[in-house]
Amino acid sequence: MELKQKVALITGGGSGVGLAIAEALVKAGCHVALASRRAELLEQQAARLSELGSAKAIAVTCDVRNKNEVEAAVAITAEKLGNVDVLINNAGLGVQDLVVDCPEENWDLVMETNTKGTFLMSQAVLPEMIKKQSGFIINIASQAAKNGYKNTGPYCAAKFGVYGFGLALQEEVREHGIQVHSLCPGLIQVPKPEAVSDMKQGWLQVDDLADTVMFLLQRPRPVHFENIGMMGF
Fold first, then answer.
1. How far apart are CA 137 and CA 180, in angstroms?
2. How far apart are CA 217 and CA 32, in angstroms?
């Protein structure tokens, strides 16, 4: 994909992994819409990113659990930047609960943010992608999408759902030239450390995720990678 003048929508785009991906895309000439619930932070980061080059960055306040807000975010992005070419489903959260003790509201919060949010965002951008016969959807899943971990039952279930959803969606949209991919990283150090000496051994950095997203987006069109697992070394 030639990224110059393309449009990317990134959920959870105001900090951490989402912001690192946004910065890499802007530097490549891609316009970006940063989406999350934190309006003030989004505005600050969008202003900073817009100063990095010729590409624009905008803030779009959105709760990915809410269908109306999701559809509005996609519409605002299209109005201000153009139709979405790249969707990065990055918004997510987890809770530390044993299944036996997990409150129902914690289960719902994790499932709706990670899994339902990925579904709603993908559903909202697909009509225009299908119309154009092109597009790229990247889900930031987790090693928890492939493995079970104690005290993270809701998170594992949600990320397994994201992973499976991505596999199914790819089969539905392949004929339309749309690629769907899920990254499955291990532990990620957030926020980004200020010095190399502060990096935790065995942890991934947010720039590692950004670099991998850029690699996937810039492969020749006929090339598709299987979902990539990533671990710190």
1. 5
2. 14
In the residue annotation, 155 being an active-site residue is answered as: yes
How many helices and strands in the chain, by DSSP H and E? 7, 9
Q: What percent of the chain has pLDDT over 70?
A: 100
Q: ∠ CA(208), CA(128), CA(109), 5° rounding?
A: 55
The structure tokens 């201000």 sit at 80
pLDDT value at residue 53 = 83
- Enumerate the β-bridge partners of residue 33: 9, 58
Instruction: Look up the pTM and report it.
Output: 0.95
Active-site pick, 55, 74, 153, 155:
155
The residue with tokens 């809770």 is 95
The 8-class DSSP code of residue 222 comes to T
Residue 98: predicted pLDDT = 96
Which residues, 6+ apart, have CB-to-CB distance to 127 below 8 Å? Answer: none
HSE, CB side, 13 Å, CA atoms: give it for residue 97. 20
pLDDT tens for residues 105-163?
999 999 999 999 999 999 999 999 999 999 999 999 999 999 999 999 999 999 999 99
For residues 97 and 151, the answer to whether their CB atoms sit within 8 Å is: yes
